[in-house]
Amino acid sequence: MAKTIIESGNVAAAMAVQLARAEVIAAYPITPQTPVTEKLSELITRGEMDAEYIAVESEHSAMSVCIGAASCGVRPFTATSANGLLYMSEQLHWAAGARLPIVMCVVNRGLGAPWSVWNDHQDAISQRDTGWIQVFAKDHQEIVDMTLKAFRLAELVHIPVMVNYDGYYLSHTYMPFEKPDAAQVDAFLPAFEYKHALNPERPESLNTVTLPDSRRDVDGVLRGGYMDIRHNLHQEMYLAMEVWQEIDDEFQKIFGRGGAPVLDPYRLDDAEFVVIAMGTLANQLRVVVDRLRSEDGLKIGVLAVQMYRPFPNTLLAEALQGFKGVMVFEKGLSYGDQGALYGDIKSALYPYPARPRLSNYIVGLGGRDIPTESLYQTTKAACEQDSSTPPAEANAPQWIGLQL
Amino acid sequence: MTTSAKTNVLNLTEEEFMHPGNRACSGCGLSILYRIGLKALGRDCIFVVPPCCLTVVQGLHPVAATQLPVLNCTFASTAAVASGVRAAMKRLGRDTQVVAWAGDGGTADIGIQALSGALERVENIIYICYDNEAYMNTGVQRSGTTPGGALTTTTPYSGKVEASKNLPAIIAAHNPAYLATCSASYPLDFHDKLLKAKSIKGLKYLHIQTPCPPGWGIEEHMTVSIGRAAVETGLFDLYEIENGQMQLTGPSLQLLKKPLRPVSEYLDHQVRFRKLDAARISAMQAQIDQKWAGFREQFGQA
Which pTM does this prediction carry? Predict the structure, then answer.
């Protein structure tokens, strides 16, 4: 039976991993991820979860254990944050290149130096080109649902999935959410089967040195070289977005939740302006939009980007046709350039005839408070601009909430 | 407790687990070890291999020189990936041996953290370090186990200033289930130590001195004789550690009864040692003599 409970976001993640029947858990403590792995080790020790818990000596090894287990066809899980994610970066590329269906929760946190344990998105953004699928949750229910769907997606497309949720905003706050029924999860998520699993009865060499050009195997069959293998990963990343949508349909039929797996719109039907963000920030912006509609008469809505890699270029560009203004708020950037999401959105719009006025706001780095009032004022000013922004200014992000 | 070689060329299994023809250099000590080691390990194994000469020896995609399953992994991750494979085997209810096989750089340097973690967790794996005493696969750069005085491409002209790190001693400090040192020049001793390792639960560590003709500057036909000289001069010792007890084995055990060959007989044939001066060689000899005086006191005259 599904039941509604009140717990922290980290415990919600652990419950999803328990329901997903992950079999090998390898993790290293880092704030604010730690309670996920504490909860999993508790569940395993109490006999409420049947899995191996491997207390590794680093995040690099955590991902390495997952790589070893997944290569044998056994379902692994790990979780991390910030510098822990960076420490496993080499292994992230490896897991994706090896096409291993690993699921990892990343409890988003700012990167050192200087040290910060508080939330922003720079950790996930810095790893966007690893070949991992990246999704962002906005609340506790989405943490649970996305994690379950992530296992299904990873195992269908053989690409690892990173489920991101905001440190503290979600990880350490308590909210009600529905814990799905175990039997229904089993029906939704069948056991992991991997046809290239390491097995002495049918030996294979995995991740061997691969030459630039294709080459014939012992049977004379031409096998792709490095570039061909990498091209497959890229093409199948695109397909992964369609599969993610199909999985969401299935999930919705069983559990009654879903419907916006890639882009989650809020009050966009008649809107002329839209604010775009990822994670909890998108929920906070709903409050801002409600006020702008009621107090200022602005026709404005929110578009949450739920899936960041593969990037929904076409869906976004089509969704943004006809808007007067698009404001992108984000908690991470490419230093010396602009917000990563902002750059991606501009690039998606370029081939389309209608290119709305765009502006970019960097907020909340290293846990800097994001007052709803400040989001309101910023968004209102952006909507009320009467002429289009000069091109040079449009390329530069505005930093909101600086205390210089 | 000692391993007297039970296996000889007459009763060594004739079955080969490595395809003929591979990418090893001629005279490669590793290819001796690999061929004989696989005979001891048998078919119910999964190998975990980081970048090293073995990566190349095993063949380039989509061709393999080995008949066994191999998981190639990143340089620093060998022992952790092997731990993941081990956990998977446990979940699948299989007794398959998980064998990590890495070089000295991958073990003593970049891989030591993951290995230390696996040792502390008492992972049930076999970890083989073939020590050719430098980064040979990238073209002979100094590693943590490169001996003092040796010329490498990153210690040119006058040789490495520092001494090598004693990796087996570092491993021994973790109290592994089984630790053995071996030499590629005594492959049957390695074979039988592997057989023993297979029968023990926990982390089994085998450290093998592995002569490398291009890296050491020796003729290809000298691989076996130079490795034997390392043992017979008392420079590299063959031993086992079980339950914290160290015991010399095989040819090193026999050395208790006979005089050591002078270390110069090992050094003189190698281009990498040609910058060693007489004073440094005397100091090395004195160190070996002192070590063996200790062995003779500890183990008697055998």
Answer: 0.97
